[in-house]
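Researcher: Please predict.
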Amino acid sequence: MLTPSAHTDTFCRDNLPPEAEWPEFVFDLPALHYPDRLNCATALLDGAVARHGRDRPCLLTSEESWTYGELLHRANQIAHVLTDDYGLVPGNRVLLRGPTTPWLVACWLGVVKAGGVVVTTMPLLRAPELSKLIELTRPVFALCDSRLLDELAAADPSLMMVPVGGSTAADLTTCAAAKPVVFDDIQTAADDVVLLAPTSGTTGVPKATMHFHRDVLANADTFSEHIVAPRADDVFIGTPPLAFTFGLGALVIFPLRIGASVVLLEKADPDTLVDPIEKFSVTVLFTAPTAYKALLKRDDLGRLKSLRRCVSAGEHLPEAVFTKFHENTGLKIINGLGGTELLHVFISAADDDIRPGSTGRVVPGYRAEIQDEDGRPVLDGTPGILAVKGPTGCRYLADPRQLDYVRNGWNLTGDTYTRDTDGYFWYHARSDDMIVSAGYNIAAPEVEGILDLHPDVVESAVIGVPDEDRGMIVHAVVVLRPGVPGDTAKIRELQDFVKRTAAPYKYPRSIEIVDALPRNPSGKLQRYKIREHWNSAR
């Protein structure tokens, strides 16, 4: 039963799925018993200042350094701008768009302090993708990096946009500087929605996962506390953007919960990691297997000597990568399986508990089992559907696909796994059409829809194929209009077309031109034949 909400704008409560469709929530750890009134920004930021002092280093970049006290002041000033100048009321949605900077972190915390609901978006998203999220989540206004305003304006010209990081009088940084540094945080309910985290799912039609204030702390008090085991003197770094819940946890929630500092990278890729790790003596790294593979190709891994924790998620970590990284650095990568629907990692292992090739065991606070198609648990060693429950779980914003993800109280992750007799979980494959490439989730039907918009494309089909560096890549099979040459230039044109229309990481790195797509007698596309053809051609 939900507690009384502090939200004046009831959009989120009104669009929660019926409680009968929720997963079962379990709170097995004492730390997960939160008070009924809880603002997670207050608990994270004000709590850290109270425990560690205002002068403690917090957010680090190559150009500047913010202490915890400075972050607190700026988050409070932003909350004043939102409420005083823009009339934000508790429950209003605020869209955030920008690269990973201290100001983006301050905006996230300022919105939450003011009782708002954050809608996180990746800076790579294009106007068509943004417009779908805006229609779904109905933000009242957006806080947008001043360098990224044009794409957002193209997505919805009517959306009020507040620029961030520019030099105009209307810029949030300018307006915030004139505001008080103290703010009376809204005393939200622990089960008030604080975050609408988008996920495209397998159809390309976005879903928004609805997470409560207590959920944000629960991931820190389970996976971070018991597996990552951070210390207050740790320095975090990572490549996932804050719009990914993986990045939000790694670069905001987990370090703030313990009072650690974090290095923020605007452009985060394997080539930009080594220098800041060495410069700032980073101790905790969060990234995807793709980055670890790229690091292994370097001849200067000795520069990573400050690291004590390396965490991998976003896609399966191959045993060979784990083993080679350990041989070259002495570090054991903490593999993890998480999901936007559950906010962060729920299966993992660290240190001597790691079994190379396995994802790990259930994170304390969670439960998991392998089920058959009818929802019955299977014997250890038998492949089946991974089902999870814990203090966090799936609640889709007004979406009938809630019934696809939740069954009999369990969250069904869409992964095929086996569990061994010691409780370790072993990954086999995705059980849907999601392509996980370099840690990015890419829906095959979405890429097909974009390709089909090209005037020379009659139809297309997209699958994921194995790739040594990225785990998987997008492979497209395309039928062109009669008379259109399917040469290298046309393939490059189609790739560039997808890059211009959608986030660039979604483009097909491999394209095959064919005369027709394989279909059954009823006209249904036979993706398995495309996969068989690709495999036989290799």
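Model: DSSP finds 16 helices and 25 strands in the chain.
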